[in-house]
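Work Package 3 (structural annotation) set out to generate three-dimensional models for the target panel prioritized at the project kickoff. During this period the team completed the workflow that converts sequence records into discrete structure tokens, so that structures can be stored uniformly alongside our sequence database. As a representative example, we reproduce one entry of 732 residues exactly as it appears in the project archive.
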Amino acid sequence: MLPLGAMMLAGSMGAMAQTAPTEAKTLAPVTVKEKAEQPQGKDSIKVERTTIGKGNQELRNIPQSITVLTEKLITDRNFDTVKDVLRNSGGISFQAAEGGEEDIKLRGFSLQGSGDVFVDGNRDPAFYERDTFNNDRVEILRGSAALLFGRGSTGGAVNQVNKQPLLLNQNEVEATVGSHNYRRATGDFNIKTGESSALRIGAMATKADNNGAGSSIDKHGIAAAYRFGIGEVDEFSVGFYQLENNNGMNYGIRFIKPTSASPTSTSVLNSNLDPDAYYGMDSDYNHGRATYGTLSHVHRFSGDTELKSSVRKGHYTRDQRATLWNFGAAAVQPNRQAVGLDNFGPGTVLTRGAQNKVQDMDNLYAQSDLSTKFDALGYKHEVLAGLDFSHEERTVYGAKTLTAAQTAALGLNRPNTTIGTPNDGAAIAEGNRPFGTSNNFTSNGYGIYGQDLVQLAPKWKLLGGLRFDHMAAGYRSFNPTTAAATGSYDMKISELSKRAGVLFQPTDLHSFHFAYGTSFNTSGDAYSLGAANAETPPEQSQNLEFGARIDSADKRFTARLAAFHSTKLHERNTDPLVPIAILSGKRHAAGIDLDFTGNITLQWEVFGSYAWIPSAKIDIAAPGAEGQGTRPSLTPKQSGTVWTTYKITPQIRVGAGLNFKSRVAPLRNPGFYSPGYVTADLLAEYTVIEDKFTVKANVINVTNKLYGDALYQTFYVPGAGRMLQMSAKYQF
């Protein structure tokens, strides 16, 4: 169907090119403007359309699982980071050790490490702590999606949708205070500047002594977008975004053995430490800045055909100076014994190691996407086609090697501390630490894709699509101390991705689908190459899914269910005879995920997301930690969230929710598990003055449950402990 659809598209576009002037004159602006203005994420937790699948599509017409978390849900639960948002979705877990926004896992497959995080459909690969102040919604596409996004996308993709200017005057300001001296102020200002133009500005500032998990917060951001020609034949927008983080950082807490003589496989979370305990240095920090500008244009050939193009230029910096502490050797402990829970106490000595990450990124992305509907050969077609270009450059800086005397002279020696003296105020002269270039990664890539959704019969639709990607990358490594070149590696890949699906839609309320999709992960996904992997072809993956989407009779409530089988068919492993990565591995994850969202009654609203992955296994791999036959790390069998609110009166609303996750193995599966957990959150809200002024209270982690949020082999970053936050919002 795709070649035929592509041919018919070319013919129809040729015809439209001849009639474009007439259509431009006869286009009904009001009708098109209604299509241009989609419902806002702050209006409801339920949406009918998404932009993650390219274009603007109905969710029921996409044969793949998609979870949408709107601004209303984000605001109700006081999520101020995208990580908070993702944590409240089934099937997602986090790896510690990278710092900032740790590597995200979906169905056990890496997202952040392979660059599968996007903003308005543009790749957003830099490591930084993303804030929610300018998010209209966050969309999660589950399963292979290389046809839409190119490389990566084994487990899925996350798309952050920025707020857009609308043809109305709408403003709001909000202030929040809470535990640990938490203070946050946000503003969202939408100003109609003409019949078809508008300006939107968002701003945020947040500070806190502690985020509930050991990190201080100091960040601010601004976003501005001007949109003109809204709903007309040609629509333009220009936008700017900047987020500045000057936060602290809790790099992690060590797992601990029950006794000093216990095997490592019996390690557990340290229940004697509060989640907000901090044993790093006062001089530690996690500074980062994300800055990008975007130009976009939409040309509407007709009510059913439009071409959307955008160009985004971004610059990102990261300067992380963190402490990873460890239990001191037996010789420095009060009882001269190795540390276990049986002898752990206020006098336990901790050593402090440096974890520095300094890097910057420069990215340029350009893409054009055409969406059209037409009839050909007796069938209805909905075609998506497009092309994109990317230029990415990352430079990593490493600390120069210093002698012991130089380290002391520069004031960089890290003193020990004890469990009984958290936040001891110790600091070193981090500003004196010298850095040099460690490596540089540069890549250029382009992709071209097309897919056709064909109405075969009144209740049946068939989807077929292909995408071609080409990428060329170069990696240069250096000795940061001497600046001498130490390696030079290049990579070129050309890959074809496929997508197919069948939709059965017996009524307007029911949609069933079966889908197949592929993806590929290059050796340069993490922006690094080496002698072992520079010549290794991309890993190949596929996703099979059978699912359903069902609406209630009044369409106020929707449930989505899918059974999936995701397989990495050719996974990189090191050849035991030569130190070269080869595609000898295989792993899979299979299970069920579901969402439900909307109104059960006019007063009662619910949202839920759940993933059950009973079958996950490394099918083929080298023996050893996380080897053949084991369950992949960071792949919990069960995870999800339930959130509900109820309007007691027109002015009073209350809410409650649970977040849960079954036990999960930390990275590299060392033989023990971080235990499962359930946390509870509460909301109370009161609205007055003609629905313009709202005050609310949130209690997060009501029981102060201790749990591991982000996990690594020997340490974890705890989830936030109990926090109370009070907010006041005024709309005008």
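The chain has a mean pLDDT of 91.
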